[in-house]
Amino acid sequence: MRPAPGLRDQSGVSRRSRRLPAPPKAEIRTKESTVHGVLLRDDYDWLRAPNWKDVLRNPEVLPADIRDYLEAENVYCKALMASTRDLQRELVKEMRGRIKEDDSSVPQPDGAWLYYSRYRKGAEHPLICRRPREGHGKDKGKDKGKSREQIMLDADALAEGKDFFDLGDAVHSPDHRLLAWSADEAGSELHGIRVRDLETGEDLPDQVNDATGDIVWASDSRSFFYVAVDADHRPSRVLRHRLGTAAETDELLHDESDAGMFVDIDKTQSGRFLLISISDHETSEIRLLDLASPEAKLSLVAARLPGRQYSVEHHGDDFVILTNAEGAEDFKIVTAPLANPDPAGWRDLIPHRQGRLILDHVCLEGRLIRLEREEGLPRIVIRNFADGAESSIAFDEEAYGLGMDAGYEFDTNTLRFIYASMARPAETYDYDLATGERTLLKRQEVPSGHNPADYKVRRIFATAEDGERVPISILHRADLKLDGNAPCLLYGYGSYGSAMSASFRTRPLSLVDRGFVYAIAHVRGGTDKGWRWYLDGKREKKRNTFTDFIAAGEALAEAGFTRRGRIVAEGGSAGGMLMGAVANMAPALFAGIVAEVPFVDVLNTILDDSLPLTPPEWPEWGDPIRDVKAFETIRSYSPYDNVTAQDYPPILAMGGLTDPRVTYWEPAKWVARLRATMTGGGPILLHTNMEAGHGGAAGRFDSLKETALAYAFAIKAVGEGWPENLPRHARA
Fold it and tell me: What is the rounded distance in angstroms from the CA atom of residue 421 to the CA atom of residue 474?
């Protein structure tokens, strides 16, 4: 069979004539420890810099021996991928061609203004803008149809000359005179917050550092609330900053002492209450502040109870609460009076129904809107408070994505929603809550051209080891011959209850147009089939995530979409852990594995409670420090600890030096152990972004280079492969 375009050798040089360098060999500096009577040996613990917290703030302080090793790995990766250099450039050009370079968001109304973001052609970062709203305030009846745009913030200008820049929040004040904005300038997710005067265009002297970046304004526009990150990088304190004062004098509202809990802030859609959410992966507690009362103090909605989760909205004299209380596994919605929100008085409004997972809810004047998923497909349901009448928004496709955006206003008859399928670009609608009329505001443009009819979207089910049916969403060209010869990129995640949306993604089209089948395995550990789907893929049941993914690959081969050995697996973060696990468990199934910021050193990380994200992770994985069974379970699947003397498929691991979530040494250690242990196969490649963190490059075009590297690796893995004269120790 003739290779599809892009699958042949791009270099023009004979495979047999190329000479490639030997891979870097990490020194062995064994560290031993004993946990629950088990001796643990870690030959590569030295790759974890003793000053790693300082590295998050300033990458230049990384110890020289570690930097030399990571840079040598980058050189080696570049050398082995050199034959794809032209292909990578071609991929970047294709993917960039699908991005509308001067794109803009659909404006959201708030009072007399319309707020939106847009890009200049060729810009990496957005402009944050507004323009007058016709028919409101002093502009009523004037300059109808004219824009008079105001650029409030130019993120591209702010990023100029910086190695890394990522705009966080940008929130206008209730009086529309100020803009609070945050940015991360190292990739370490430590944000600085500034405030811009929208009349002068200048930033005020106020500055807050080491924050998560989330901002909520007080009603009087004279102060804002934010979350500070502690020395261990945990969001732990909520403070109020009053304009014109030093950050050192900011008022502390809440300081969370439990190292296993994270803190977040938001406000109700009504704008009346600040919400302080304290949570881990299975328990939540909310404290609130009445923004309508300047002298108000924090009050508690419901004290934390292990396993109970809830989120709060407000309507009239009631709180409207989404919760799993009283055994509501897939969640229900209750109401409680503002004066006494104690759980003893919670009253069911939307009762629990097994298999219908309520994902989110919001209140607009007179209405409750909820986003829910049943049988893997989402829908939006609108309920009138007055009479209980309901209507819904859904679509008749095998697989699609659906989301809602309530915007800024509370007293409105308009709800915005976004719909997309794997073949159909995103469509943004305004939905008239009174009439049910849908108005299409924007259809995502693909400048290089895209015809949904050229593609086929499918959903099939794999049968898991225990008989469960695992959904698989599939995209391929309509003219692709499904004879089992097509290569396949199979994506998976499966942790934290995160469902994988079957929505439109432009980047995979570069693979699909080259004859790939693109598939998403909706494995356990996510909530794709309800909350039980999540519970069956965590802690002692984590192995289900891995076997579900393997079953998905086998099902795709059995159904003729591809065949064993033609599948490239891809996953990132906790999905990278999935990649490491399936590489150990079923290496022959895969032609290659792409593991982006992979959480692969699970046992060592979850045993180390000095790491910033470890205590909050115990509800997800178990506590191996205090629980022997949890220790044994994690040890049984931790990818780094289960590398064995066997052949492995080619693997590309990608990390970020300033990543606070999956620290750079996890993929580095994994790659070192793979090379030292495996008996054949490979090669094993490591690419570390020395100027970025968990999300990789921040710019919308810069990030394409990392995707192009991953896709070129996938194409090479199923096409030309690697030279036969690759040194054996590069493979083994």
Answer: 11
Tokens of 457: 């979207």
Separation CA 554–CA 182 (nearest Å): 45
The sign of the CA dihedral 328, 334, 336, 341 is positive
Determine whether 659 is an active site residue.
yes
| C-beta of residue 539 within 8 angstroms of C-beta of residue 621 | yes
- How distant is the alpha carbon of residue 22 from its chain centre? 35
DSSP H helical ranges for 408-514: 509-512
| Both tokens assigned to 4 | 């599809």
Closest CA to 210 of 225, 180, 188: 188
Respond yes or no: is residue 522 known to be catalytic: no
Specify the residue for token string 């100027």.
691
Q: Report long-range pairs for 453-458 (Cβ below 8 Å, ≥24 apart).
A: 453/478, 454/478, 454/479, 455/422, 455/423, 455/512, 456/423, 456/480, 457/397, 457/398, 457/399, 457/421, 457/422, 457/423, 457/502, 458/398, 458/399
Nearest to 253 by CA among 297, 223, 222: 297
pTM of the shown model: 0.91
Q: Which residues pair with 565 in a beta bridge?
A: none
The active-site residue out of 166, 315, 694, 703 is 694
The 10s digit of each residue's pLDDT in 674-700 is 999 999 999 999 999 998 666 666 678
Q: What is the DSSP letter of 22?
A: P
694 carries an active-site annotation: yes
- 34/69 Cα distance (integer angstroms): 28
Is 347 exposed, middle or buried, given 0-12, 13-18 or 19+ CB atoms closer than 10 A? exposed
Give the span between the Cα atoms of 311 and 276, in whole angstroms: 10
Rounded CA gap, 263 and 279, in Å? 7
Q: Note whether 168 and 213 are within 8 A (CB).
A: yes
Token pair, residue 706, equals: 């990392």
Q: Is the Cβ–Cβ distance between 379 and 394 less than 8 Å?
A: yes
**Residues of the chain scoring pLDDT < 70:** 1-19, 136-147, 612, 692-698, 724-732
| Cα 37 from chain centre | 37
Catalytic one among 219, 270, 573, 703? 573
pLDDT tens readout for residues 274-313: 999 999 989 999 999 999 887 789 999 999 999 999 999 9
**DSSP codes, 387-420:** T--EEEE---SSSEEEEEE--S-SS-SEEEEEEE
C-alpha 557/C-alpha 551 separation (Å) is 10
Q: Tell me how crowded residue 674 is: count the other CB atoms within 10 A of its CB.
A: 26
Which residues does residue 180 pair with via DSSP β-bridges, in sequence order? 171, 195
User: Encoding tokens for residue 571?
Assistant: 């996953």
Q: Provide the pLDDT for residue 440.
A: 97
Return the residue matching tokens 């309800």: 530
Please, are residues 393 and 379 in contact by the beta-carbon 8 Å criterion?
yes
Lookup: tokens for 222: 């004279």
Containing 263, the helix (H) or strand (E) segment is: strand 262-267
Beta carbons of 240 and 223 less than 8 angstroms apart:
yes
How many other CB atoms are there within 10 angstroms of residue 144's CB atom? 9
Angle (nearest 5°) at CA 326 between 320 and 328: 75
Each residue's pLDDT tens digit, 627-673: 999 999 999 999 999 999 999 999 999 999 998 889 999 999 999 99
Give every strand in the sheet of 310-315, ordered side by side.
310-315, 318-323, 332-337, 347-350
Residue 312: strand, helix, or coil: strand
Q: What is the CA radius of gyration of the chain?
A: 26
CA nearest to 661, candidates 264, 303, 235, 376? 235
What does DSSP say about strands 235-242 and 223-229: parallel, antiparallel, or unpaired? antiparallel
| Terminal CA-CA length for the chain | 30
